[in-house]
Amino acid sequence: MTAGPLCLGHDETLQCTPPARGADSAFCYSESQFHFHAGNTWTHLGKTRAAAREHARALELYPASDHMDRTLVRLDQAMCMVADQDPAAAAAHATSALVGLPTEHRSALIIYRAEQLADSVPRTARQVPEVRGLREVLALPAGTEG
Asked: What is the pTM of this model?
């Protein structure tokens, strides 16, 4: 029998029985989802090296057609760049993620997370051209190309 998707246990990763096809579970993740959530957790804890490993693995596993989760991972990567004190690279990475996203996939969640990123840039770096560019893309009306 092949291993099922990964589940989060109390303090370890466990195998679980996959939910029925089409059914979501808050306790059972696919491997890509597991790495996405692990990367997001490390991002919020400021552990950028651990986050980078998880982000890379998540992006390897998610199909190119999974626009939302791939973009959220890229926004987490950009958050790590801010934490590592590289706001120009962070803004350029986030802008690239947003501009490369098909318009129909620019959900409120994606925009909200990108705005969180822009707001996390230290005030002293908000006039950096890449940061201003990110804010300009975020200010565009929905459905507008950057």
From this structure: 0.81
